[in-house]
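User: Modeling request: complex.
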Amino acid sequence: MTQFNRILITGAAGRLGSELRKGLAPLAKHIRISDRVEIGDVQPNEEAVVCELGDYDAVMALTKDVDAIVHFGGAPLEVDFETILDSNIRGSYHIYEGARKNGVKRVIYASSVHAIGYHEVEAHIDADSPVRPDSLYGVSKNFVESLSRLYWDKFGIESLCLRIFSSFPEPADRRMLWSWLSFSDCVRYVEQGLTAPRVGHTIGFGISNNRLKVVDDSKAGHIGYRPKDNTEHFRDAMEAKTDIPDPNAPGVRFLGGWFCELGHPDDEGK
Amino acid sequence: MTQFNRILITGAAGRLGSELRKGLAPLAKHIRISDRVEIGDVQPNEEAVVCELGDYDAVMALTKDVDAIVHFGGAPLEVDFETILDSNIRGSYHIYEGARKNGVKRVIYASSVHAIGYHEVEAHIDADSPVRPDSLYGVSKNFVESLSRLYWDKFGIESLCLRIFSSFPEPADRRMLWSWLSFSDCVRYVEQGLTAPRVGHTIGFGISNNRLKVVDDSKAGHIGYRPKDNTEHFRDAMEAKTDIPDPNAPGVRFLGGWFCELGHPDDEGK
Amino acid sequence: MTQFNRILITGAAGRLGSELRKGLAPLAKHIRISDRVEIGDVQPNEEAVVCELGDYDAVMALTKDVDAIVHFGGAPLEVDFETILDSNIRGSYHIYEGARKNGVKRVIYASSVHAIGYHEVEAHIDADSPVRPDSLYGVSKNFVESLSRLYWDKFGIESLCLRIFSSFPEPADRRMLWSWLSFSDCVRYVEQGLTAPRVGHTIGFGISNNRLKVVDDSKAGHIGYRPKDNTEHFRDAMEAKTDIPDPNAPGVRFLGGWFCELGHPDDEGK
Amino acid sequence: MTQFNRILITGAAGRLGSELRKGLAPLAKHIRISDRVEIGDVQPNEEAVVCELGDYDAVMALTKDVDAIVHFGGAPLEVDFETILDSNIRGSYHIYEGARKNGVKRVIYASSVHAIGYHEVEAHIDADSPVRPDSLYGVSKNFVESLSRLYWDKFGIESLCLRIFSSFPEPADRRMLWSWLSFSDCVRYVEQGLTAPRVGHTIGFGISNNRLKVVDDSKAGHIGYRPKDNTEHFRDAMEAKTDIPDPNAPGVRFLGGWFCELGHPDDEGK
Amino acid sequence: MTQFNRILITGAAGRLGSELRKGLAPLAKHIRISDRVEIGDVQPNEEAVVCELGDYDAVMALTKDVDAIVHFGGAPLEVDFETILDSNIRGSYHIYEGARKNGVKRVIYASSVHAIGYHEVEAHIDADSPVRPDSLYGVSKNFVESLSRLYWDKFGIESLCLRIFSSFPEPADRRMLWSWLSFSDCVRYVEQGLTAPRVGHTIGFGISNNRLKVVDDSKAGHIGYRPKDNTEHFRDAMEAKTDIPDPNAPGVRFLGGWFCELGHPDDEGK
Amino acid sequence: MTQFNRILITGAAGRLGSELRKGLAPLAKHIRISDRVEIGDVQPNEEAVVCELGDYDAVMALTKDVDAIVHFGGAPLEVDFETILDSNIRGSYHIYEGARKNGVKRVIYASSVHAIGYHEVEAHIDADSPVRPDSLYGVSKNFVESLSRLYWDKFGIESLCLRIFSSFPEPADRRMLWSWLSFSDCVRYVEQGLTAPRVGHTIGFGISNNRLKVVDDSKAGHIGYRPKDNTEHFRDAMEAKTDIPDPNAPGVRFLGGWFCELGHPDDEGK
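Assistant: Request completed. Predicted assembly structure:
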């Protein structure tokens, strides 16, 4: 179903961006792909743009003539505040302003488990639970979740804020046995967000169909995400090569994992 | 399992009534079928009765010697108030009075999504959410839900109020991709309601196992309904022949669909 | 503050109607008062109309040129179904149709504790709790609560559904020590409903500031009702002349009091 | 995965204890099995100990050098208070003291549906619902649930309190069509409790994947229990040989089944 | 209002028992007062009984011919388990058995904040929040709360479980500025529990009208407790003589105060 | 009670800052007052500092040697994004970094109703309701609420985020009859935040004791704010000089008032 004429994917050179380029291709005639670095292997259906999200004029141009935005750009983990401020906060503001000024009606935003990383795994939170970021990175995710709420309530732009848990080729530690989001499931959730009849402002939890269920995604049921993957076939190997975890270690206790064990980025290396 | 001696089905000439006649046949030795119009193709196990539900004496007779009532009669969509008053309100009162006077202990009532049609699809309501009817028709469904609650609390008659979403041979528009209830699933839910060990007063959401999940039916888990059908095989054709919906159109935004776009029946044709 | 040009009060010959005529006089230049019986002692600011609410044309005329409706008419307690159907159900429908056709923007409706009479006193329900009527009378209150919800969602007419507990000159039994609503507090709540900046569709619990608190009215906080009366000065006399209640008697156990001990009106006198 | 050096199973001679001995064998090099009676057929990997849980010193010795405790010992149904006091209350206290003094970090405790037996089946309670025991036996389960909460909050010992519904070779009555926990599913839940990365203090509902769903186990989703069995293949036979239940009988109405119909154990035989 | 012929007060020699003897005198012709030690200054309306609550026969005699029981006996703080088992657990069981066998219909039980002591002060729990005891003493309070729930659901004996926070002549530390229950307010709450029309099984929070509000007692609103005292007149002196607290100290962070800082009673003195 | 050696007040030249300088004077020996503009009328107990919050080094110096921070600085209403980014987002980050680096343990932050401005007045939200900002200004408030949550969970710095509704000398429009926070009550709330035994991370609603109650502040009960003022003495004058509001106007319907009617700041003047 080529539902869209043109989709924009930001952060297209990143780990997930590369998957989305392939996975979303059937949905649109054209895919505009952007990143702050050169993107390799550009396909015939793709328009590659090098763009700093902190550059207002560049983002206004980038978001022109697109029907939907898959916003996965910005710093992907904990870094110093000024980088987060420019890439994630100002950059995302530019994306939403681009959407508003250019008439784009829907945005799929890569939020993160780190927006709610300090909730305990046994708290079984859902999309309406209060935020508890575990890092400056997580705070920037809350910022965009709030910003996109405003752009829906005031300007009628829909957003799916997809809180991605652990999206890697395969689980990299024991925690990911429950927190893993396969690349295919990630693409699947974004695709549902793009095609669902009504998104409004929705917060979803991006996680595969793993055995342990630590969050409740039912409030995004109108998006229609149905995960197909799970981590059971990785379990034995992972448990064989890693120690039994201490249930009180912050990285085990809290949703955010090792982000909860990080100090402040200013203190790194001290 | 021929659990019952005689079941009464009202509205038996209607779209769903016809399905119920076949589907529920194994449950009872006799099925009394009634409608305001002549019912065709009466089977040996069936007793056909033409009956206006607004006629008290007729309904008292109709409900005699039955073990359970499947009450699907009444006006099936928005019409003028006096018709609703007579068919749905007075008529359903007669059914419950018949049950009370004749010792019938359980009723399965065809309530409707239109009893809660003004909730937004992203609200993910459950059976305890406040009512928000989208039509006079929906108000009459709330009336019977309230009446049946009284008949349980005061007179010990159990009811399953089954809020039917969109029960048609196949989905007729994009909204039904999430709201469709297959005929088999409809029969399945009614059958569970008739045979569950305890119904008390239960409100259920009649919807198939469609990809998008917009309401939470878990409070009817003691009924044991497990849908078997879904709309995925209709999706491509439906999406090919219909436009992408405007998420802000009332018919997309609210559970009740196009009923929310109807004016008052008195104003029709003006 | 003469905020309104003309208010309509239905049921104006009734116990509460008489209080409202006096209490609301300062709010409007004209008060149209109606009842099915002749109303005595008509004041210069009043326009008295004898009107059956079941008469469509009469109600259309009655609701003309009014700015707000205080709808206290209809059968005030459990009676046979046809009376309830005509007075409370059809009659209230006419009132709302009159409001719609004549451009009246706000209605204060005398709902009742009997709309939720089968909740236990220790359940501490609030305005969003499911309905549990204790009588046909209570079912008719649920009908109007549902109808008024529709008229707000679809036609933009605001309603305060005021669930009146026990509004009498003074408490008439031990239960009223907690359920009593003084006449002044009743007028106060209606007045707030008429003048609050936004009512939308609100359900309020009409009860004075009595010592025992069995329901939670906080969801009507935007109406601004602050009760001034309470039953403490009646307590000693009431306790002296009545027996200690059995906590398991339905009239003590449930919000609805003795209505929960009534049988069906058809069985009365048998 | 031989994750543990030594697990202790109490009540190992009981119906479920026997299943656990086999089912948990792969998890530990050694399994210490204890009961108040001699245990038959001791395997090479097992250390059998006859032990009264009411004997403090014996339990201190019993819990030494173990890595986890599967505490299924104690009186398994309603008996006189002094037996419950000694076996279930004092006995379980000894188990937790043994864990504390011997450094055992995790306990799987056989709680019971009878801890919440007086909730109605249509209440759909979850792990945070208030307790409503249906027997002195059930009260003792609440005691241990409370005690284990203290031992987590204050002493850092994790507990899974597994509320076992009806764990028998096969369903023994109609109620068990919804309440049955197969032996394999029981072992499965305990195994998940032993190996989940973080248990903290968790209450789980031990029930197979039966058609009717009367409780909500989602708050134990971090344990990762996924039932594999259900009762559908027993349904026809059971329904054929037992009467249709009265939905108002306490044994049908309440979660606890026939325990709700028991009198006080002191009155038995009178 | 001499509503009762005879009330029994256990723990009548204790701090609160002495207050209750005076405060409840107007409610009953006779007050039976019991304690494990001799009670001084026996009044003409009082019947003093020395009684170990662990002695079954003595308690059966003690509870004879009484109309209501105010059960404040048992160990009043953290002690070794066997003392708690005998005084608080077995002793309270005897009280409830006495009530059942002797036809006493209502019990006011001195539960404690320590039944929920490990909740954080900012959690704002209410009566339905899960228990989190902070001590063996607190566990025994949960035991009686569970036991009394059974005696209501199964045997129809009403209980008010009054979770007393800090009832002393005056606040003894900074925490008591919010947790203090004046003696008069304590008597007031018990009196309301004895005279309220329906108690069923109610959990109340015994705390005066102090400035800081850390728990929500609204679910006991049907009891009608209205505190009259508060700690503001003690504030300046208390703040002058005590240090500013560390908000992370367990005694500040948790409802239970210094009980959360206690170790296990077996470890005391080590 | 001179509880603190030195408090820092930012935004001290602003409307509320001036009130806080006076009101908080008794709490501290020294008050450091800062603003981006010169502050007039400096008192002997005050240390005035001109400081741009966007200047990292300046804020590090500003926050040195203080015991608590009352952070009321930053842009006080809707302005262009870059101003908000610098003053409110970067500036508040600097304040929290200053607190962290200089060992300040508690911050009182001037959040705003505009953090939740798009909730309807009849929604009766509390502190845990999802955010719904009504402006870029509101989004910046959500940012700081999220940031301060991180600084509590990870770095142990307490924050009271005080969502100020309408704090002016007197109500300026009809909406403020319910939303007004008197200057005295504002100071009172801040004072409570500074002196409460435990703040953790608390969100409070800053509003006086006005007749209409549209939000639920009970989750901040451990702060101990008790408003003393209300708007009733302004009501008549205000109602006389302003029109009756349209309940559907965004400024009446939503908590945020006229902020909900603002367009985007970039579009102003167009």
